[in-house]
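Project standup — Tuesday

K.O.: blocked on the structure for the chain from last sprint. Re-posting the sequence here as requested.
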Amino acid sequence: MTANRVISAAEGNGPVNAIDLALRKDLGKYQKYIDALDLTDYRVRILDGGTEAVTRVLIESQDETGERWTTVGVSPNIIDASFQALMDSIVYKLVKSGRARCEDVGGIASSASSYSHPLLATRYSPFTPPLAHTGTHVP
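H.V.: unblocked you, prediction finished:
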């Protein structure tokens, strides 16, 4: 698979919404399969206190069937952690719906990992497995 570099920009209600909108604009043939994907909850947890704290972002998503799942991003940078969790949610939706094969996921994630923003200090690793939603809350 030949990776194409795509640069996307979007404005939103805050940086996480802007990243979500930018990601949704550039998924090419997969775009129509995530139109009904909704972010239903966004939580931030600080793992260690102080100025060198590590941030954990939990994003709960829902698809058109009502199925819910939670994905996690962890980074010292809250924007990067949010990006990780958003990408994992999109990739999970595509794989579980049969719209992308496992080998396609690397291409989708590779394209997204070239996402460049001054606030993102690290590159994205797409293989943080989503948590199955059981109706319980993750602290």
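K.O.: great, moving the ticket to review. The two ends are 39 Å apart (CA to CA). The chain has three helices and four strands.
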